[in-house]
Amino acid sequence: MSVRFFRGRALRAACALAGGVLVLTACSNTESSGPEVAKVEGISKVDAIAAQLPEDIKNSGKLIVGVNVPYAPNEFKDPATGEIIGFDVDLMDAIAQVLGVTAEYQESDFEKIIPSIEVGTYNLGMSSFTDNKEREQTADFVTYFNAGSQWARKVGSDVDPENACGKRVAVQRTTVQDTDEIPERSAKCIAEGKPEIVKVAYDEQSAAATALVQGQVDAMSADSPVTAYAIKEANKDAKVIEAAGPIFDSAPYGWPVKKGSPLAPVLQQAMQHLIDNGQYRQIAENWGVEEGVIAKSVINGAQG
């Protein structure tokens, strides 16, 4: 299967696990507090990296970050406080600590973030951007994660992406899993003389996860961080769902900055520092997305 471009091609999981509420609530408990995710301690400024910051950022003491929410668990709002939280937020806060500045998050429509970076409104973007060749024409990207699609199933089941003919698979409507992946897999089943995959599409990712937990479907397919977080939240009291097969169609996430900006190598060095000392992995593990961690951050790492 060809590589997909996530977060920009697919509709994002909006209500899915918003605020870290257990999937069985299907987002009905809007007053619940956010997830109890520990902060990684001991992150400190690295003078040699911070000294390379552009002068305007040094002088302001701020990184202005354009962000679009919600996309749990990467960036979404705590329903109790309205604060923007998530894996991406904790990681960017850590980057800011390494650089001795503060990350200031400004909400934006997703499609307006890169144009706003080009005109200087934001220093960078942080919204699970896939680093692809097309986007690299207008911005530089500092990679920090790998995302793809991943399936989940009930514990004890043997269904997986290569063993799903005749099975019921939940997806969020209009995502790449809905429009491309499951139809392609189903067509392959039919071509092999096997029963089609029954695609069960929901308006909200939370409903797809709930359907799996309740046994209404045999599996679900979503972007890998979303699936990983769904598994983490559903299994808080007992293990009920698990990953079904590896992540596939992976591509890097990156932070976009202005083309040619000296900020890109500074972010890359700060990111590599967090990778090398293990704090990056700790942050990913706190959010249950460690399967997407990378060993090396690069500038413009688009595949293909």
How many DSSP E strands?
A: 10
Helix content: 25-40%
Please state roughly what percent of the residues sit in beta strands, choosing from under 5%, 5-15%, 15-25%, 25-35%, 35-45% or over 45%: 15-25%
| Low-pLDDT stretches | 1-5, 7-32
The CATH first-level class of the largest domain comes to: Alpha Beta
- The second-level CATH architecture of the largest domain is 3-Layer(aba) Sandwich
**H and E string:** HHEEEHEHEEEHEHEHEHH
Class by SSE composition: alpha/beta
The biggest beta sheet is recorded as: 5 strands, mixed
Reading side by side through the largest sheet, how are the strands ordered?
A: 8-7-9-6-10
Q: What would the CATH topology of the largest domain be?
A: D-Maltodextrin-Binding Protein, domain 2
CATH superfamily of the largest domain: Periplasmic binding protein-like II
Number of helices: 9
Mean pLDDT: 88
Précis, in short:
Keywords: Signal. The chain is an alpha/beta fold and 304 residues long. The protein has two domains: 150 residues, D-Maltodextrin-Binding Protein, domain 2 (3-Layer(aba) Sandwich); 101 residues, D-Maltodextrin-Binding Protein, domain 2, CATH 3.40.190.
Write the layout of secondary structure elements.
Blueprint: H1 47-50, H2 55-60, E1 62-67, E2 76-77, E3 84-85, H3 87-99, E4 102-107, H4 113-118, E5 124-125, E6 139-154, E7 168-172, H5 176-191, E8 198-202, H6 205-213, E9 219-223, H7 224-234, E10 241-258, H8 263-276, H9 279-286
Helix pairs in contact: 3-8, 3-9
Architecture overview:
- It is a single chain.
- Helix content is 29%, strand content 22%.
- The chain has 304 residues and is an alpha/beta fold.
- It folds into two domains: 47-147 and 251-299, Periplasmic binding protein-like II (D-Maltodextrin-Binding Protein, domain 2, 3-Layer(aba) Sandwich), CATH 3.40.190; 149-249, Periplasmic binding protein-like II (D-Maltodextrin-Binding Protein, domain 2), CATH 3.40.190.10.
- The strands form three sheets. Strands 8-7-9-6-10 form a five-stranded mixed beta sheet, sandwiched between helices.
- The model is unreliable at 1-5 and 7-32 (pLDDT under 50).
